[in-house]
Design a protein that fits this description.
Layout lengths: L2 H19 L8 E4 L3 H10 L8 E4 L2 H9 L7 H4 L2 E6 L3 E2 L5 E2 L6 H9 L1 E9 L12 E5 L4 H10 L3 E4 L10 E6 L6 H9 L4 E4 L1 E2 L6 E6 L2 E5 L1
Parallel strand pairs: 1-2, 1-3, 3-6, 6-12
Antiparallel strand pairs: 4-5, 5-11, 7-9, 7-10, 8-9, 12-13
Helix pairs in contact: 1-2
This protein binds ribulose-5-phosphate.
Length: about 220
Amino acid sequence: MTSQDQSKLKQAVAQAAVEEIRSDLARDTILGVGSGSTVNCFIEALAALRGDFAGAVASSTETERRLKAIGIEVFDLNQAGTLSVYVDGADEIDGDFAMIKGGGAALTREKIVAACARRFVCIADGSKHVRQLGGFPLPIEVIPMARSHVAREMVKLGFSPVYRQGVVTDNGNQIIDLYDQLIDDARDLETRINQIAGVVSNGLFAHRGADLLLLGTAEGVQRLT
Ligand code: 5RP
């Protein structure tokens, strides 16, 4: 698939997400908005509904910037309470709607906003839908002083950790990516990684996966529940 084709699929799922959430919107509705190139298409499509809802909580400073640029008010999550819906992309999503996220290093804030939402709508092009998670490197956000410790613990568990050089998260932390390991039990691994001292969060969204997947394919957008 060319990058132009992939971009068209992203725009199609972004538009489908706007149609999906339209009925959730009221004057006091605050949406959760994720991060990444697919979400950027969603933000562009959302501009048409700008006056129909109160605003959004952003999962990254980049998303916050983009929302504000099109005139959507951005709220602090602590003021927003429970969100009716969160829209975000994924690096991989499996048949149970467990995901790997964090290719853009926004995993921790994404996980927090997702935890505050009643419904998680995942928007992705067909290349993201996989039988088993792990083809895409699994990110771990770590406190900087714990980076080597966390990496050693991951080697003990049989993983190949790689420091994502030059990346600092919105929270001032660093990222380790785990390469080349298919994941048998995503919930168990999500929990186990979180037990390691110095881990802020990891990119497995298995305990809180998506509720709905809008998948962009050459045949059109599939609505999978
Ligand atoms: C960022 C994410 C994104 O949702 C994920 O990387 C997908 O991005 P894209 O839509 O650009 O493929 O988790 O941390």
